[in-house]
Amino acid sequence: MQSKIPHVVSVAGSDSGGGAGIQADLKACAARRVYCSTVITAVTAQNTCGVQAVNLVPPDFVARQLHSVLSDMHVHVVKTGMLPSLPILKLLTHTLAKFPIQALVVDPVMLSTSGDVLADPSVLPGFKHQLLPITDIVTPNLKEASALLGGLPLHSVSDMRTAAKLIHDLGPRNVLVKGGHLLDSLYSIDVFFDGQQFYELSSPRVNTRNTHGTGCTLASCIAAELAKGSSMLSAVKTAKHFIETALDYSRDLAIGNGAQGPFDHFLALKNNNQSSCRQNRFNPNDLLLYAVTDTAMNRKWGRSIAEAVKAAVEGGATIVQLREKDAETQDFLEAAKVCLEICRSYGVPLLINDRIDVALACDADGVHVGQSDMPARLARTLLGPEKIIGVSCKTAEQAQQAWIDGADYIGCGGVYPTNTKANNRTIGLDGLKEVCQTSKLPVVAIGGIDLSNAREVMEIGVPNLKGVAAVSALFDRGCILTETRSLLALVGQH
Predict the structure, then answer these.
(1) Which end of the chain is more exposed for a tag (fewer CB within 10 A), N or C?
(2) CATH of the structural domain 272-491, one choice from 3.30.200.20, 3.20.20.70, 3.20.20.60, 3.30.1330.60
(3) How are the residues of the chain apportioned to helix, strand and coil, as percentages rounded to the nearest 5?
(4) Bond prior to 180 in cis (omega within 30° of 0)
(5) What is the distance, to the nearest Å, from the Cα of residue 107 to the centroid of all Cα atoms in its chain?
(6) Quick check: 152 and 112 in contact, CB under 8 A?
(7) Could you read off the pLDDT of 304-339 as tens digits, one per residue?
(8) Would you say residue 158 has pLDDT above 90?
(9) From CA 63, how far away is CA 92, in angstroms rounded?
(10) Per-residue pLDDT tens digits for 50-94
């Protein structure tokens, strides 16, 4: 039985600078793991300085593109961007009447972010009388909303609510008026109206020049989530959160010389730049001294997570895992971002225990999952091929499954009794050796390992045992830096 692949078709213009239009739609859908096909309405010459030229695609060829995709590819949602002429808008509405879809998302692109005109004024009546009545959601910014309403001034959230209601009266089932251009506000406030209730969706304003393509991306994210089966309000909230995260991540990217740069849909460009000191995605030798943080120990010694991590990497820890079971998500995320900066300044990988959401949000180097956590194969699907994935294993069977699921390494133990995990069955040196001998992956030993027994662990005589992981031996001590140096000196001899 074939599985349903969520599919969006974007009907929009091409942006040679890659920040907006068709290019942004493709990247946004890919980032949301939805297939995207395209119908190009215009080809633009533009960059971060603005739009230098626009070449419209002939309407009959736009119609051919539309028919080719809709007649064959089981499209669930159509998203529109740049509809530069009335004939193109008319043929779109005519074609959509012939092909059933789940939803139509309209981003009423009339001006570029830099102020360049992207649609003929004759298109406006077509929006009002032909396209909006068949639209499931329309996503105008303040200028576009004003244009749809005959130049109505919009200067406040109250004005946006009025605009949303008036635009809804034109026919669309849902309206999202975007307030990103609202002056004198520390927050980006969008107003969503479903015909019955208003919702004010607020997020902190991100201070960055890299905002080119946010409108296209937001509409495409909404379309992608609708194609997956989300409700309209849920799709809008998810899309807004995606934009906020991508803008925050991309705030300091330097692409182009103009006033409005693009942002990074995949949260990867900055990571590649910052991680240039690490030549490989994963080096098994990084497992030599694996430092695992602990909430209770940090609290006991009055340390922040960042302070504990900084001392460990200064002492020579070769890889760090943040295992903070009791930390609130927002606090954990903020701490993880700080720890990531510390680790990358030392060229040390940072992994998150269990919390794939936190790993994605802070762009950590990977995750470590237990047998009762999300399976490694699903973690790999979510994180992609470049991230590091470790799995806790006690048996040869579990180690074999970790290899099948695409893990990079195994954390094997507990080798000795430990106080950091309740009811944790120990496997001893014999169990560790058995797992190592049958595993196709590099192994790091964990569980009760300290200066008194690390030597005998490293001397079990199996080549794929690459190091030891320590919790209490490092973080339940008065001086983390000294203890880390001592343990590193011991395991580094083997």
Answers:
(1) N
(2) 3.20.20.70
(3) 40, 20, 40
(4) no
(5) 22
(6) no
(7) 999 999 999 999 999 999 998 877 888 899 999 999
(8) yes
(9) 7
(10) 999 999 999 999 999 999 999 999 999 999 999 999 999 999 999
Domains 7-265 and 272-491 share a fold: no
The class level of CATH for 7-265 reads: alpha beta
| pLDDT tens by residue, 171-187 | 999 999 999 878 667 78
Q: Which residues contact 247 (CB under 8 A, 6 or more apart)?
A: 206, 208, 210, 211, 214, 263
Render 47-95 in DSSP notation, one character per residue: ETTEEEEEEEPPHHHHHHHHHHHHTTS---EEEEEE--SHHHHHHHHHH
Q: Please state whether the predicted TM-score (pTM) of the whole model is above 0.85.
A: no
Distance separating alpha carbons of residues 133 and 199, to the nearest angstrom: 22
Confidence of residue 276 (pLDDT cuts 50, 70, 90): very low
What pLDDT is attached to residue 273?
Answer: 46
Report the C-alpha dihedral over residues 433, 438, 444, 448, rounded to 10 degrees.
Answer: -40
Q: Which residue matches tokens 């080549």?
A: 463
Contact present, 80 and 74 (Cβ < 8 Å): no
Active site residues: 178, 211, 213-216
Q: What is the DSSP string of 160-218?
A: HHHHHHHHHTTS-SEEEEB-TT-SS-SEEEEEEE-SS-EEEEEEEPP--S--BTHHHHH
CA distance linking residue 86 with residue 268, whole number of Å: 39
DSSP letter (8 states) at residue 129:
I
Residues 6+ apart with CB under 8 A from 262: 17, 18, 19, 20, 24, 48, 210, 212, 213, 250, 253, 255, 256
CA of 369: how far to CAs of 239, 265, 293, 416, 417, in Å? 28, 26, 15, 20, 20
228: tokens are 């997956």
What DSSP element (H or E) covers 12? strand 7-15
Q: Give dist(CA 161, CA 163) in Å, integer.
A: 5
Please state, as a whole number, how many other Cβ atoms lie within 10 Å of the Cβ of residue 238.
17
Percent pLDDT > 70 in the chain is 94
- The helix (H) or strand (E) run that includes residue 335 is helix 329-345
CA gyration radius for the chain?
A: 27
In one-letter notation, the amino acid at residue 172 is P
**Which strands, in side-by-side order, build the sheet including 137-138?**
50-56, 35-47, 7-15, 77-82, 103-109, 137-138, 174-177, 187-193, 198-204
> How many whole angstroms separate alpha carbon 382 and alpha carbon 328?
22
Q: How far is CA 258 from CA 17, 50, 261, in A?
A: 11, 8, 7
